[in-house]
Amino acid sequence: MVPIQDASSIAHRLSLGKPLFWLNPACAHDAPHPELEEIEAAAARLQRCAPLLAQLFPELAADNGLIESPLLAVPALQQALALPGRLLLKADHDLPVAGSVKARGGFHEVLCHAESLALDAGILHSIDDDYLKLASPEARALFAQHLLGVASTGNLGLSIGVIGAALGFDTCVHMSSDAKEWKKQRLRNFGVRVIEHSSDYSAAVAAGRADTEANPRGYFVDDENSPRLFYGYAVAALRLRDQLARAGIPVDAEHPLMAYIPCGVGGAPGGICFGLKQVFGNAVHCFFAEPAEAPCVLLGVQDPSIPSVYDIGLSCQTDADGLAVGLASEWVCTRIRTLLAGVYTVTDESLYQDLYRLQSTEQIAIEPSAAAGIQGPARLLSQGADYLGARGLESRLAQATQLIWTTGGRLVPDEEYKKFLERGKIASNETLTD
Ligand SMILES: Cc1ncc(COP(=O)(O)O)c(C=O)c1O
C-alpha cells in the first residue's frame, strides 16, 4: 500500500485494484464553509415530522419519532487497533426502521414530497399545521395516486420503500444486480414493488428515472442529483455536534476530529462531510472509504470530467453492495471537492476482517459495506504523514477524536451475518498465519 498524491498517476494506480490512500490536493484548509440554512431546514422538517414518524413506526415512539443512532466509545476495538487519542463509533448501522445511513436522507426526501403534495391539496394548511394529518385517510388516498420511484444497491431502496409504503405511496424500487435478496424480500413484504435489474447501479438509476418520469404523477428520488437527500444526510452532522457536546468532547484546533465514512455514489458521506465542515470547519477532517474495485468518488473528486471506474479498467465488483457504484454523483463531487481530506480504498477481504474484528472486540454486528471506515484511523496514521504534518496534527493525535462511521447492518438476517462472520474469521486467520 502506497500513499499517493500525484494526480497523473492516480488512474493508473487505481486501475491495479490495490488498496491506496489518496490525499485530495484540492482540499482547502480554509475553504469557505457551505451554507448551514439548508441543513437546518432539513433538520426542522424531520423534527416537525417526528410525531408522524412515531405514529407510523412504533419502534420510534421511545425517541419521539427521531431517527438517530448512538455515539459509542469502543475501547476494546481501540486497544486492538493500538490507536492513540479517543476512538468513537457513529453507530448508523443501528439506525431504527431503515437500518442504515440512508435513513435520514431518504426519509427527509419522501417527507418533503409528501409535505408539498399535502400543502398543495390543502390537507396541510401550513408547515405549522398538525403533521399527523399526513397519516390521515385523506392523505393516504392522495399519496396512493402518486408513484414514488427510486433506484438502489439496497439500502436507499429500503429507506425510501419503508417510508413510502408507510405513507401509502405507490412505491417502486429499482434494484441493481448487487442488491441482496433479503433486502428485496423485505421490501416486498412491505407492499413495495421491486424491479430487479441485471445491470449495475448507474444503469438501474437510468431505468428507474425513465420509468418513474414516464408517469405524470411520478416522483423519482434521484440519488445522483438530489439536494433533498443530501441535506437530509447532512443533518447527521448537527446531531453529532450535539452528541459530542453532551459527552463533553471538544472539537477545535487543539482537539481535531477525523471522520471515516464508507462511500458509494457519494450522497450520504458527501452530505455528512458537507455538514461536518459547516459545523466544525478546519477542526474536522473527512476521509471516505471506497472499495478498491469501485473508487468512483475518488475519481470524480480528482477529475471534474467524472470518469467511471470502468473507464480505468476496474470491475465495480465488490461484496460491499452499498458501495458498488461505478460512477459518482457529479452534483455531490462538486460540493465536496474542496472539503474532502482524502479517500482510501479497501479490499473485500479487509472488510470481512474488520467486520469480524468489530464483533470479536465490541460484539457489534454490521454489514460488509459498513466496515469500510474501521481501518481509517490506522491508514491515516501509517499512510497520511503528509496530511498530518502539513496541518500540524501529529502533535495533537493524543487529544484527537477518531470517528468511525458504521453505516449499516441492523436489518441483516442472522443467517447472512453468520456467513459474513465466518468469512471474516477465515480471512483473519489467514492473515495471522501468512
Ligand atoms: C451501508 C452503506 N454504507 C454507505 C453507503 C454509501 O452511501 P452513498 O451511496 O450515498 O455514497 C451505502 C449506500 O447505499 C450503504 O448502503
UniProtKB/TrEMBL annotation:
Highest taxon above the source species: Bacteria
Alphabetically ordered keywords of this record: Lyase, Pyridoxal phosphate
Catalyzed reactions: D-serine = pyruvate + NH4(+)
Top EC class, one word: lyase
Presence of the UniProt keyword Nucleotide-binding in the record: no
Cofactors: pyridoxal 5'-phosphate
Keyword Transmembrane: no
InterPro entries cross-referenced by the UniProt entry: D_Ser_am_lyase, Ser/Thr_Dehydratase, TrpB-like_PALP, TrpB-like_PALP_sf
Domain Tryptophan synthase beta chain-like PALP: residue ranges: 67-379
Gene3D superfamilies: 3.40.50.1100
EC code(s) of this entry: 4.3.1.18
MF terms in GO: D-serine ammonia-lyase activity; hydro-lyase activity; pyridoxal phosphate binding
Family: Belongs to the serine/threonine dehydratase family. DsdA subfamily.
Name of the protein: Probable D-serine dehydratase
Natural source organism: Marinobacterium aestuarii
The organism's taxonomic lineage, starting at the top: Bacteria, Pseudomonadati, Pseudomonadota, Gammaproteobacteria, Oceanospirillales
